[in-house]
Design goal:
2 domains; ADP-ribosylation fold; Arc Repressor Mutant, subunit A; binds ligand HQG; RNA_2'-PTrans_C; alpha+beta; transferase; about 35% helix; three-stranded antiparallel beta sheet; RNA_2'-PTrans_N; Probable RNA 2'-phosphotransferase
Length: about 180
Amino acid sequence: MKTIEVSKFLSLVLRHEPGKIGITLDENGWTDCRELIDAAGRRGKRFSYETLLEVVRTSDKQRFALSEDGKRIRANQGHSVKVDLALPVGTPPDRLYHGTVPKFIESIRESGLNKGARHHVHLSPDLKTATKVGQRRGEALILTIRAAEMSAAGYGFYVSENGVWLTDAVPPQFIEFP
Ligand code: HQG
């Protein structure tokens, strides 16, 4: 498998469907690299440990992390299966950004940002990243989140290992629309 295919495959099994290849994630989302590679290989998804290392190293968004001994791997964020990433709580910058698309705006105006199928709402530290996130779905529309104000009002924020800011929900009063 090419690295891009391996990356997509890892996203699927480490975030959403470990059971698809018969592996399990521990409570913090980790799984054994060797078991993962073997289980994948038995289902025709063949790649080496070296390829897996390359995917972790070159992932544009640092999607995966290895344990210090290199034996275990987990996804840094984006899970739909229940895992506790034990993320550090952080104090966000004044503003954070969220890239979305026009068709969602009405609903976001009414109910704010919600986490949908994910564990958290994902917010970007800069406009460029937010634009990329929005463009996955079409013409990107960038919302500005008054994050420091939210934090002061008692809403919790976490930072993932790859610099994505996470929170449970963003009520409409903290969102600036374009
Ligand atoms: C929208 C990718 C209607 C929200 C990216 C978004 C990111 C609402 C979509 C990461 C809404 C959810 C996350 C509401 C939110 N009404 N629509 N009240 N609240 N939405 O994919 O932020 O490639 O779950 O605007 O780069 O797009 O997976 O979230 O459009 O970092 O590593 O509902 O996923 O990273 O979509 O993306 P998603 P997201 P990976």
